[in-house]
Structures are given as C-alpha cells and as structure tokens.
Here is the input.
Amino acid sequence: MAGAITARAPISIGSKRAVATESVLARRVLITITVVFLTIFVLVPLINVFNQAFSKGFEGYWSVFFPPQPPDDATLTFSQKRRLAEGAAQAARTWSSIGLTVAVAAVVLPLNIIFGLAAAWATTKFNFRGRALLTALIDLPFSVSPVVAGLVFVLLLGRNGILGPWATQLVWPDPFSLHWVGFENGVWPLAFGRTHTGVIFTPLAIVLATIFVTFPFVARSLTPLMENQGTDEELAALSLGASGWRTFFKITLPNVKWALLYGVILCLARAFGEFGAVSVVSGHIDVNDTMPLRIEKLWNEYNNQAAFTVASVLAFVAVITLVAKSVVEWKAARDAERTN
Amino acid sequence: MTIEVKNISKSYGASPVLRNIDLKINSGELVSLLGPSGSGKTTLLRIIAGIEEADRGSGAVVFDGEDVSDVDLGRRGIGFVFQSYALFKHLSVFENIAFGLRAKPRRNRPTEAQIKEKVQSLLELIQLSSFAQRYPSQLSGGQRQRVALARALAVEPRVLLLDEPFGALDATVRRELRSWLRHLHDTIHVTTIFVTHDQEEALEVSDRVAVMGNGRIEQFASPQEVYENPANEFVFKFLGNYNVFHGRSGAGALVRPHDIAIFRTSDGDRPDAAQTAVVAHIGFGGPVVKIELESDDKNRVDVELTAQAYHDLKLQRGEKVWFAARRAHSDFPPEYAI
Ligand SMILES: Nc1ncnc2c1ncn2[C@@H]1O[C@H](COP(=O)(O)OP(=O)(O)O)[C@@H](O)[C@H]1O
Ligand SMILES: [Mg+2]
Here is the structure.
C-alpha cells in the first residue's frame, strides 16, 4: 500500500514536466535502465578513451603531439636516431590531420550556412511546385549510409566515373597556399603557392564528402522556426522601405540566430567526426587524413595510446559541443519565451 | 491621395478570390472593407499595398492618377499594419518605430537627432512615451497595435492600410482604440483603408464602407446608406440580425429586430397587420433589451427594444402581446446566378 499510487496528485498547469502519477517502482526502474544504458554506452567508453590516452602518463600524451627532442650535443645510437625520426614523422602526420580537419570544417561551414539559409528560406517562405520533394531531398544524407555517399562520389568523379575525364584533369589552387607576392606581376598582390590535380583522393574530395553528410543540419534546425515565424516581419520591413539585404540582416537573421548557431554546432561536430564518407574518398593517402582517419591508422599500426590520444581530442570537442548546444538551447528557449 | 482600384481580379489556382473589383477612394477618406471571413478583404488590401500581385492582365492600382501596379511594395509610400502586428521582436519600441527612418537611402536619411525627435513625437501620439525602451513582448495587445501604427506612420505614408487592426483585442480595448483611430485620422488626414469583419466597427468609424462578399464589392456607400438602404439581400443580412416573414405569396420579408414594435393586448392603437405572440424570453443588454417572441404559428421572432420602451411596456415573460413590423425589406432584386 505504501503510498504507491497518488490518485489526487495535483496537476500543475503550465509546468513543463507532467507530474507522473505512476508508481514509484516504475519510475525507479526506468531511471535505472536509463542510467545503466548511458553508463555502459557513453560514460565508460568516454572514460576509457582518456584512460588509454594517458596510459603512458602525461608525458606519453604530450609526446604524441610534441615528440621529445634530445639535447643538441647528445650522442645517439643509430636505433635511437631512427626512433626519434619516426616519432617526429608520426607527430607531423597527426598535426597534418588536425590541420586538414579544421580546414575542411572552415570551408564546409560557410557553404553550409549559405545553403542552409537558402534552403530553409525557400522551403518555408515560398510556395512552389515540388516544395515537398525538395524538403525530402534535404533530409537524404540522414538516410544514406555515409560509405555509400563516398562511393557515389568515387563512381561519379573517379577515373572511370561519368564526370571522370573532366574531374581527373581538374586543376585547382589550394586556398590555404594563398600568399602575398606584392605588385610586381600586376595589380593583384596575392597568389596561390600550390595547385592540386584531380578531385577524388585529394582534399577537395574530403570537402565534397563532408558537405554531403553535413548539409542538412543548418537547414533542418532553421526550418521549423522559419515556418513558424511566417513572412509578416519581413513584409513589414520591406513596406517601410528597407532593401532586401537590410531586411535579411536586420530582421530575418536576428530572428533565427540561435537556431542558426545550433545548426552550426551540429554541423561542426559532424564535420569533425565524419569517418565513412571521408574514408572512401581519401584513398588512404596520409596527406588526406582527417582526425578520424588518422585515429584508424594509428590503431592499425598498434599504436593504441596515440590513437586514443587523438581520439581524446575529438572526445573533448564533443563535450564542448554538448555544452555549447545546451547553452544555445537555453538561450533560444528564453528568447522564445520573451517573444510570446 | 486618391486610390483607384480598376477591374482587379485575383485567383489562387482555379479558385477566384477577387472578381473584377472597382473602387475609388478620395483623398483623406477613411474607408473600411467589411465582409465575412474569406470574402477577399485581406487579399484586396495586400494587392493595394503591393504585397500580392493581381492576376496578369486583370487591371491596375492607381495612386493619384499614377499606375503603381508595377511599383515595389517599399516604393509605394504605404504604411501597412498587419493583423499580427508583425513588430520586430528583437528591437525596442523606439527602434521599431525608427526602423523605416533608418532604412531610408543615405541622401534623405534624417540625422540621429531628427530620428529621435520624430520617434518621440510619434510615441506621444500613441501615448506610449515612457515605453520607448520596452520590447514588444512587454506590451499589451492594444499597446502593440499602437506601436505598429506608429511604425507605419513614421515614414509619412501617403496611404495607411490596416488589416483587422483590432481583431485580436478584447472588446473594451477594441472600442477604445476604434475611437482613438477615428480621432487620429481626423488629426492627420491620411487616406486610410481598414479591413474588418465587425459591422459595428466599420459603421462607427468609417467615412464610407465597402461591403465585400465572395470576392465582389456588393455596396460602397456611407455607413448610413449601407445600413438603411442595403443594395441587396447579402448586404442586408450581413449588417445585422433579421427576421424572415413569409407572406402568402411565398416571398420573404426581412425585418430587423429593432424595426418591430410590440403592443400590449389592451392597446387600441395597434395597426391592423399586428399579430399575436407570447413573450418567450427577455435578455438584458444594457441600453437594448432583446425580446424573444413566439408567434402563433410557433415561429421565433427577435425584437430589440430600447430600455425606455421596455420599461414603458412592463413586459413579463409568458405574456401575450401583439407585434408588427414598422419597416420591412422585401424588394431586393433576386440574387444573380453565378
Ligand atoms: N496564399 C493563398 N493561397 C491560396 N488561397 C488563399 C491564399 N490567401 C488567401 N486565400 C484564399 O482566398 C480567400 C480570401 O482570403 P482573404 O483575402 O484572406 O479573406 P478575408 O481577409 O476576407 O478573410 C480565402 O478563401 C482564402 O482561403
Ligand atoms: Mg483577412
């Protein structure tokens, strides 16, 4: 009998949490299941990542990024020298993977913001034939296996692909090699220091694959909000004589800023962590390694501690993402409350 | 400024929403578009504003003799107040009102001091001077409505277009704002069109009323004219309650509740046409008392008496009385077939 059922529990109107009038036992069981599940599948692996990463102490962790340098006057045996060179090469590859991951994210993110805003705008503020189809297409990457997506790019742009003859000849400048050359060659003082040829098995393919798997995030986080807000505020701004740009930057953008940021966070998290699609188009060439690919290589070389060390960086990014996401959700909810 | 709507039609897909609308509004007039929900009022207002486009080749919107059909919304010199207010949620009241001034091209944009002065004077006009720094969410419905109006007025529009401006407000605030709007219009004399589905509101506030039904303008005349001489049955029926009396010929006569007189059974001066009935219900409504009669042939007859007349009659529920129509509308042309 012990007060298991409270038939007269007051229902608090307006409270976000419905008061559960189920038995205390059921509540405990459900909470226990959830906690056990999260512990087994999230908490333990996460702790394990850091545990393994620090298995050779803080020094071991540090040396994955900054391998030990012997004093200049030290006399080293041949095998010592070889091990030092090996360590330096591994660290260089790790740094290159971090650099590529950040660079890909930096290229993908602005494109996704533009695409996401355009797609959300088109599907919510205009009525046109094929709108439903477009909305469904935006969700496609959620339902396609990333590996399949990567393969599609290979089949499309690879040597025997439909666009192969064009794509394999494509020469494109490396945007990160842009540097100052002065005015000696004309009015344009900047020049690219490096070019790449081809698409598949180059960083460009990594960018394409990452765009494919991340593009729904921004659009999807904006759509419900934009749909809800309708077009009245924009029309009001236009009727007051504001230009289209002004209306967009002063009215539309401020109204969706938290949803946009939320989409950006999700997009970044996915861009950093994507493995399948990127793996297929990278060709397993070292210079095409992003952090997840680098982790796999270290693992395959039986360098578990280094693999977990790089993984711990991604895990750390994930935790930051989680915090940022919660903050944005909280801010968005507060704003939504203020506007009602 | 005069506004002319010439032969405007609009359909969404296959369904026509406006059918060959013609309307001419004089400079400085306050005109209301009155009609039931779905009759096309908002659509017409949005076409005049330039938010919506009329059907291709259907007609023109003319401001002061100039065809503005192809002029952008922002360049028509209109002030539009949305039914939802559409205030900028993330801007203060001050910035909402200043928005149109700040959006002007650089060469005729007022200085910061001029903007401040202008906004201040508008805040006074809408009696919200101390609310400049508040956000829309911190205002009541009526206050939001006034801010929306001030924001539209800031750019000194040639025409003010209001879509159901008081639609979402409660009855008291509605009545207050209604007379406030009338006073405002008498002060600034800007040509104004406002949409409403509330007969009382339209008749009380406007210089002229355009009664709309089913995508057409059924009558466009002064409030008194539309009420006393409705052009057709639709207008008559839409403007108020009515009773239908079927004569021997089968044709129905339409009579307003306040056009029915009640006589005591003992009265000697009742007209010959008077019929007998029983008082079924008495409802008090302030200055007007609503009486429900049940006639001998078991039909319900609604009657409205002034409180004074009611007191003089000393009516009781269940009492037998005589009633007769003082005025009947029965000569409407038959409804045209579509
Ligand atoms: N964007 C639209 N698409 C399709 N039908 C519409 C659209 N806007 C209005 N309508 C239809 O046009 C008719 C008139 O609408 P509206 O002008 O809003 O009427 P009112 O303002 O008199 O209530 C309605 O039947 C409505 O369903
Ligand atoms: Mg409407």
User: Anything to note?
Assistant: Residues 171-188 of chain B form the longest helix (18 residues).
